[in-house]
Amino acid sequence: MEKMTARMLLPVATLLIGATWLWLGIYEYGFWLKGPGGGFFPAIVGGLMILASVVSLFQEMNKKGFGYKWVTALPLAACVLILVFSQVFGMLVSVFVYLIGWLKLFEKYSWKSTIAVSAGTMAFIYGAFVKWLQIPFPKGLVFQLLQ
User: Fold this and answer.
1) Structural domain total, the chain
2) Among residues 4, 91, 115, 138, which one has the fewest Cβ atoms lying within 10 Å of its Cβ?
3) pTM, full prediction
4) Nearest CA among 73, 69, 65 for reference residue 3
């Protein structure tokens, strides 16, 4: 086997996650108890993750060269930053700042378009999830201190 590259780490990680969910679904949550049990869906998804991970791993093993660009890690880094900032400033503020940053810096939208799309998206999220469905998003430490 060739040496492990950075692009092989994600399929290996998803393989381990899929194996964990498959095991939990079958042995811990009850896969089939006179019909689909609580572990039915986690086991199916875990099995599909294992299959997709093995296919992806073999594809990466057959590639020549490294070819990994740091830009491909930006969405993952942005998700981690949203999670961190949502604990400090709240989920809605963090997503709003993310949208502005992504649209302006990476998609190269004008300020007018960036603000319009970000504000419209946040209005939809607030109206649909906070007001209509009444889903409690994390408020963050700053807003908890202000209350």
Assistant:
1) 2
2) 4
3) 0.55
4) 65
Output the pLDDT for position 45. Answer: 92
* Domain that includes residue 23, residue range: 6-68
Q: How far is CA 62 from CA 12, 28, 51, 69, 70, in A?
A: 15, 36, 17, 18, 21
32-48: burial string, b at 16+ Cβ within 10 Å, e else: eeeeeeebbebbeebbe
Contacts with 96 (C-beta within 8 Å, 6 or more apart), sequence order: 118, 122
Distance CA 7, CA 70 (A): 11
Tell me: do 87 and 135 sit in the same domain.
Answer: yes
- Residue 89 near residue 139 (C-beta atoms within 8 A): no
Are residues 52 and 99 both part of a single domain?
no
Q: Is residue 1 part of a domain?
A: no
52-96 pLDDT, tens digit per residue, is 999 988 888 777 655 556 666 777 788 888 888 999 999 999 999
